[in-house]
Amino acid sequence: MSESVANFDWDAEAAAFDEQPDHGLRDPEIRRAWADRLRTWLPAGAADVLDLGCGTGTLSLLAAEQGHRVTGVDLSPAMIDLARAKLAGRDAAFLEGDATAPPVGEQRFDVVLVRHVLWSLPDPARVLRHWCDLLRPGGRLVLIEGRWGTVSPVGIPADRLTELLAPLVSGTGHVRVERLSEDPLLWGGPVADERYAVVAVP
Question: 76, 150, 147: which is closest to 118 by C-alpha?
């Protein structure tokens, strides 16, 4: 999780976090649906993936199972402990830290993978620039976001996110939006919110 939501007690949430269908992916069909999507978002060959706001490491595990080397970062020590246990014996490392400024030093990655973090940040444009700086040439951002609720919705619309990414994408880069709301298998049932993934190659 990120520093901007540090006032929320993520450590207290950690034990029950995976009970949400799209968090723990304990149902085989939901897990398969996410694995299939992730396979299309990540490179075909083994890659170095930085999973920011990794939580309990569920997406990290899917990436590792697909042959990728994973570094996960989360603000919550309890989340990190669960992620380390979940990926024990895998090619994965987990670091406690802020997703907006991950403690990875000079290391660069083929993929920066972020789920449901960007919407909560006060300056997403600045954070996106920093995340792009963490990529190797030809690397990609995989951003899973949404806009939730009807009375007082929270989140970031896909159109807004593509606007923020536009200045960061060169003439040879691209941004692809994949709508996820219409696939109930990802969420454990039908949803009415805007949910999507963006794959951006700066």
Answer: 147
Spell out the alpha helix ranges (H) of the chain: 10-17, 21-24, 28-41, 58-65, 77-86, 124-133, 158-165
Q: Name the residue among 166, 82, 76 with its Cα closest to residue 117.
A: 76
* Residue type present at position 59: L
> Degrees (nearest 5) of the Cα angle 143, 167, 148?
35
SS3 93: strand
Structure tokens at 66: 């697909």
Contact at 8 Å (CB) between 86 and 113? no
Phi, psi of 195 (to 5 degrees): -130, 135
Q: How does pLDDT run across 21-37, given as a tens digit for each residue?
A: 677 688 889 899 999 99
Nearest-angstrom CA–CA distance, 91 and 65: 9
Distance CA 155, CA 141 (A): 18
Residue 39: how many CA atoms within 13 Å on its side-chain side? 9
Query: Tell me: the pLDDT tens digits for 161-179?
Result: 999 999 999 788 999 999 9
CA–CA distance, 9 with 95 (Å, rounded to integer): 18
